[in-house]
Every structure is written in structure tokens, then in C-alpha cells.
Amino acid sequence: MSSILMHAPALVIALPLLAAFVTPILGRFNRKTISWLASFTLGLTLLLTIFIAKQVLTNGPIVYVFGGTEIGLTLPFGYSMPIRIIFQIDAMGIFMGLITAVVAFLAAIYSISYMEQHTGLDKYYTLLLLLATSMFGMELTGDIFNFFVFFEIASISSVALVAFRSTISGEPAEAGLKYMVVSSISALMVLFAIGLFYGQYDALNIATIASVMQFTQLDKIALILLVTVLSMKAGSVPMHMWTPDAYSEAPAAITMVLVAASQASLYALFRITFSLYNVTLNTITVGWIIIILGVLSMFIGVTMAIIQSDIKRLMAYHAISQTGYMLLGVGVGLAVLTNPAALESYGIKAMEGGIFHIMNHAMYKGLLFLTAGSLFYRTGTRDLNRMGGLAHNMAYTATFFIIGAAAIAGIPPFNGFASKLIIYESVYQFNPLLSIIAMLVSILTLASFVKVFHSAFLGPQLEHYKSVQEVPKSMVLAMATLACIIVFFGLFPELIVKHIVHPAVMALIDQARYTATILGGI
Amino acid sequence: MHIGLLETGSGYWNALIWVITAVIIGIGVLWLRNKGQENYKKNTDQTKPFLSGNPEVSKEDSHVGASHIYWGFTEALKKYYEPLVKLHTGNINDYSGWIVLMMAIIFIIVGVS
Amino acid sequence: MIGNFPFVTVIILIGLGIYSLLFKKNLIKIAIGLTLIESGVNLFLIALGFRKEAVAPIYTQAPEGVKMVLPTPQALCLTSIVIGVATTALVLSIVMIIYQRYGTINTDEIRRLRG
């Protein structure tokens, strides 16, 4: 048993990938079983991820060499640089992996009922499993070209999923096309940057490149390309316009996974700036670029959200605005990276806030998108103007929506408050104005969710929604799980911050440890 | 109390104490509410909302639609919203344009520093 | 100077691709723009591994004492080509669906999702 679990990092990729291609074959014989197969596989993957997380957090980073004679042997035959594809899992990578695993598993559970009426389910689950695989790959890999491959798989499968409902109307195809064009540009720019690294350093392993990084002119160009396209994929203003299109047209469960996928790009942005470049780059300039992108995203995202009348579009703009908090928190950490005193007094805290917010955001934004999906499932519309009084019929959905809305608006005791409080208080020491903007954005967030709650759930029961019922059990189960996670994180935030978030932040900051994991020494 | 104590950079946050306080305040509010008058006349005008003597609008007609909420807010910030909404053209060429523009801006900032 | 020629071509190809993404209104031309950028990047990778008067890096087939080109960029390039085919196919099929539903492939008219 333990010998199989030694290969857990490979299995996390292999299991969903295998299931992705078993699904269409199985679908030929029995349509019903494929949704259960997908849920089962993703549940197994979640267990594996938890197992790896436990190992990483107790014993330090894990290295998995593909095709080698030994799993941990990074430098065979006395080479000075690794030649094989290596998975390098540290606390930050597995932190993102946990989010992905939870989100993908719950998306599969939710889809059991939500997608039941649709045709082409085998393709749907194949794409969902492929998307999960590629997100794990992006988060766990230590090889930059391998990252590119998973990045492209993520784009292709998520585009196909966004356009999945284009058999009914043209809008999903339009959203898919827009997403495809921007993600193709970004993937090609990532590949160009990889070419620049390879041309200079003859290496594709992130740790190896980091150890010999000179920050030449070409490295600067690579940095510019990577920062731009990865922050675009994370959905930061002013490159955010694909986000509301894609998020609103995708099926609800997929939107939840797309949020996690854009956070995988955000993770890559942090990985590149912290682990690859670290102090060689001008941390103050790049830190401020990320901070300004974050502040713009927060403010423009939330003000655009207030005026929306499509429920999922509104939530998509909030996803942009919440991404701003993460960029702000981690950007402050990057800006003070070369200043040990400031890093110690508030930089690490700001990063903890930003990183903790990634996890919180995946949970409550996932929950909100699922409630929006439940409303769509029962009413057949996403237009808030046509909804009203649905709390009479859908009590569970209304309750879950309140929990999610309170969490995103930063109302205690839910999890959004804990991470936002860390961000406010630590960023205030860096620059008070940024902290004040962040609080203002939080108030506007609450305002726009009051709008959604009022127009969808409150008011008298409408005539044409008299027969609306509560959503099926699997959808309630997925939403209830997320709601429980939110409440738990809100009541015991220090457990999460101390045991999961803090190690992740230290793994980002400590570049020497990252390179030493592969190259030895220290 | 050590459980639930989160260090936030400048201070501390404890959700459990917050919940306990909220429950205590809630009980207090309920207690105050229960001390109110009980000898009012039911099913008369005393139980209806008072709108300056005007008749009460029925619940069905008084529901405000989503597009009308925050009308004053958007109207006051018209100068901010009009150009902002105009920027979101939905045209795929502009989407690529923003990426190239941002790349150029970041190129200049990083190049100069 | 002449050795930099491939890189100049790379810049021209990527520039042309970006030009067509920004200014061409036809969706098929946008798809062509994406392929142009992709070809530029692929050419860049191949040009990195080029060595003068060298042969293909097949150990068993190469004659003694002859230089070989670097195989890794070629492997990267092959992967990128395969992914590029998938991307192009997906873009073109989505364009096809859009044409069925909207009756046009002009980007100025394909903007029901905005604001």
C-alpha cells in the first residue's frame, strides 16, 4: 500500500486523466454511471491530495522524478542540472492543489443532477476531468515547459466547457471564442518566455533557472510577458473583459472550476515572481505593478458589478474584484521583499492575507455560483429583473446564498472577514490609502449582494414561479459542503492560517529552499 | 482564550468571542422586544404600516426590480459609469488590444526602472 | 548579422499575427493571426537549437565526428505544434457555430455579451 502512495504525486495527475478517457467508452454502454465515475475519481484524487498535503506539511517539500530509476533522484549520473520532468510539491503548490481538488470534486457532485437533462454528458465529464488534471499539473509541476503544456490543456478544456451549451444559443460560443483567443495569446507568450529562458540558461526546470538567474534584458522581456499574460488569465483589470463573458455563459458547476483555474494562473504569477526571479528583479517596481493591477481590479470590478442585472455576470465581476485583494496582499509582500524589517513586521502578514483569500474566495465564490446555478436550474433565467420571491420556494438555496454573500462581503464570523481583516491591517502599515480603498470595495460588495438577495429571493411569491421547488439532493449536498467549509474557516481561521497558509507563504518567500530541493546543498 | 485567536498584523480577531457576544446581544434584544405592549387591537389599523395617511401599496406592486435598485447611485456617478461601460465593448479586437497595451505599459515601467 | 535573420523573421511573424488580431474584423483572419504568432514562436524555438553544418540528432544514424543540432527545442516545438493544431481546430469549430447562430463572422456584430 505504501509503495502505491509513494507515487501519489503522479497518481493525482494520472487518475483523472485515465478517467477522462474511460468516460466516453463507458458512456457508450451506460449513460448513468459516468457522472458517478467522475465524482468517484475526483473524490479519490481529493483523498490523495490530502495525503500529499499531510506529507508536505510535516516532512517538507516532495520531489517526484518522472521516468527516473528513483523517485527522489533529481540529479542522476552526477549531472549538475536535472534532465527529467520533475514534480516539485511544496506547501504553496499543495495549498493550491487542495483548493483544486475540493472544487473539482464538488463540481462533479453538483453536476450529477444539474447536467442530468443534457446530452453529450460523456464529453462534459471528459472535459471536466481534463480541466482538473491540467490544474493539478500547473500547480504541482517544477518544470516550466510542463507548466506550459498543462496551461494549454487548461485553456482548451475550459473553452470547450464554456461553449458547451452553444447547441441552445449562440452566446456560449461567443464567450468561448473570446476566451480562446485571449488564452491562446497568453499561452504563446508563455512559450516565447520559455524560449528566452532556454536560450540563455539551457534549462527548463524552474529551480535550475532560478539558481542561475542573471536578470538580463531578455529576462526582463520574459518577466514582462509572463506578468502580463498570467495576470490577464487571473482576470485583472484592464484585461478582465473575457471573465464576465466566460463565467456567465459556462454551466454553473464549470464556472466554479473556472474560478479555481484562473487562480491556478494567479499561483503561476506568484511562483514566477517569487520562486523564479525573487530578489534579482526590481521588487519595488514589480510589486507596485501588481498592487496597482490589484487596486484597479478591486475597484473597477466592484463598480461594474453593481450595475449588472445578469446574476452570473454580476458574480463574475465580483470574482475580478476579489482577485484584486489577492494581488494587493501578495503585491505588498513582493514590494517589501528586499526589506527584511518591513517583511517581518507586515509583509508576511499581508501575503498570508492574500493567500488565505485565494482559498476563501474559491469556497464562497464557488458557493455563490452554485446558488446562481440552482436559480437557473429552477427558473430558467439568469435575469434578476425577472426573478423575485424565490426564498418562499427555495429555502436551502436562500440560506446558502446568505452565507456566501456574507462571506464575500466580509461580514464576521464568516471566512471572508478573517482574510480581509489580515489584508486591511497589514496593508495599512504599508500604505493607508490602499487599505481604505479595500474597505470601500468591501462595502460596495455588500451593497451589490443586497441587491441580488433583494431582487431574487425577497418580495412576494411571483405567479409564474408558484410551482418552483427546491433543487435536487446532489446540488444541495455540494452547496452544503461549501457552506460548512466557509463557516468552519470563519470560526477557526487561525488553524488554517497557522497550519496551511503560513507554510505556503514561507515556501514562496524562501527561494533558496526551493532551488535546494532540486539541486541539493544547504 | 487561545482557541480561535487570529493574529492580523496590528491586532487580534477571535470569531468565537464575536459569536458569543452576538448571541448575548441577540438575547438582550429579544428580551427588550418581549417587554413591549401586548394589549393592542389586532386586525385594525394599529397593525398596519403608517404611510402619511396614504393607502398601503400591495406587496406585489411594491417590489423593486433589479435594474431600479441603486438608481440614485448610478445616476449620481453617471460621469464615471458612462465611459466605463463604453470601454466594455465586447469586441474581440479590443480584448487583444488591452493585452498588448498593458504589455507595452509594463514594458515601459520595467524598462525605465 | 545574417545569423540573426531567423529572429528578425520571428519578430515579423509575431508582429503580423498581433496586427491581424488587433485590426482584422473577420474571425477567420483572427484565427490566422493566432497561427501566425504560433509559427513565430515555433520558429524561435527551432532557431535556438540551430547549429551550422550539423545533422539531425539521431545517435544511431549519425556519422562519426559530425556535430548534431540540439534536440530539446525540436521536442518543445513538436509539442507546441500538436497543441497548436488542437487550438486552431477548436477556434475554427467555434467560429463555425458562431456563423450558424449569428449569421456573421464580423467581430463588430458578435458582441451580444458586453457591459
Description:
The complex is a heterotrimer of chains A (522), B (113) and C (115). The longest helix of chain A has 40 residues, at 340-379. Chain A starts with a helix and ends with a helix. The model of chain A has no long low-confidence stretch (mean pLDDT 91). Chain A is mostly helical. Chain A is built from 20 helices and two strands. A two-stranded antiparallel sheet of chain A has the order 1-2. Chain A has a domain at 282-491. Chain B has 113 residues and is mostly helical. Among the domains of chain B are: 1-35; 77-113. Chain B has four helices and two strands; from the N terminus they run ββαααα. The two termini of chain B are 49 Å apart. The model of chain B has no long low-confidence stretch (mean pLDDT 86). Chain C is mainly alpha-helical. Chain C is built from three helices and no strands. In chain C, helix 1 (5-23) packs antiparallel against helix 2 (27-48) and helix 2 (27-48) packs antiparallel against helix 3 (71-102). Classes of the chains: A mainly alpha (522), B mainly alpha (113), C mainly alpha (115).
Sequence-ordered SSE layout with sheet pairings:
The complex is a heterotrimer of chains A (522), B (113) and C (115).
Chain A: H1 2-5, H2 8-29, H3 31-59, E1 62-65, E2 86-89, H4 91-114, H5 121-140, H6 144-162, H7 171-201, H8 206-212, H9 217-234, H10 242-249, H11 252-277, H12 283-306, H13 311-335, H14 340-379, H15 395-408, H16 415-430, H17 432-456, H18 473-491, H19 493-509, H20 511-519
Antiparallel strand pairs in A: 1-2
Chain B: E1 5-7, E2 12-14, H1 15-34, H2 71-76, H3 78-87, H4 92-112
Antiparallel strand pairs in B: 1-2
Chain C: H1 5-23, H2 27-48, H3 71-102
Helix pairs in contact in C: 1-2, 2-3
